[in-house]
Amino acid sequence: MRRTSPIVLLVLALAGGAAGFLLDHALTTAGRATFTPAVALPIFLVLLAIAVLAFAWPIRRSTHALPRRRVDPFRAVRIAMLARASSLLGAVITGFGVGLGAYLLSRPIAPPLGSLTAVLATAAAALVLTIAAIVAESFCLLPGGGGPHDPDDPHGPHLEDDDDDHSRAAAGTGH
């Protein structure tokens, strides 16, 4: 399993930012009020960040304890996938909130303080979720990497697949 790429997170944040900016622009062009996230959204995002870290912490504790305890690999993969999904969601919502804020600040009229506060709180909470999810994902990885036989490890040693030639040569000499 590979870690979540920072480039993917950046692309998602940029896409979310463009979507937020364009949504507010479309609403304003149609004569409607700009979009303001609910006050509960930042609270739920922070609670999700705490939950993801809480789920991943026992795995980290088990893999980093001196006498290593057995970790259920299915549970570790599920939590790693939850962390990955949370980091992707956090990146999109961070970008979306920044896009909404950029549109509000680009207008000639000063935005209402409540709208700007809700947008900035949402972007900040989503950034907290993204960071917490990346940390939680790292908790689900074994310390020291996957070793030389891990095909997903780009920095590990890569062995040539020349064992077939040697095994045939050794098998051919014995018969």
From TrEMBL:
Compositionally biased intervals (Basic and acidic residues): 149-159
Transmembrane parts of this sequence: 40-59, 79-104, 116-136
Stretches for region Disordered: 146-175
InterPro entries hit by this protein: DUF3180 (IPR021517)
Keywords linked to the UniProt accession: Membrane, Transmembrane, Transmembrane helix
Source species, domain of life: Bacteria
Keyword Mitochondrion: no
Name of this protein: DUF3180 domain-containing protein
